[in-house]
Amino acid sequence: MLKLYHYDRSTAAQRVRLGLEEKELKWESIIVDTAMGDASQRPDNFHEFNPKGLIPLLDHDGFMLPESTLILEYLDDAFPEGKTLTPKSCQDRARMKLWMRKIDDGIHVASRTIGVCIVNRFFYKEADTKKISDYYKKMRDQTRKSNDKINTEMGLDSPLLKPSLHAFKTLFSEMDTHLSEHEWLAGDNISLADVSLVVYLTRLTSFQMSPLWNNKPFLIEWFERIKHRKSYKFAVDAWGDKTAERRKKEGEQAFEKIEKLWNEED
Question: Are residues 117 and 178 in the same domain?
Answer without folding.
Answer: yes
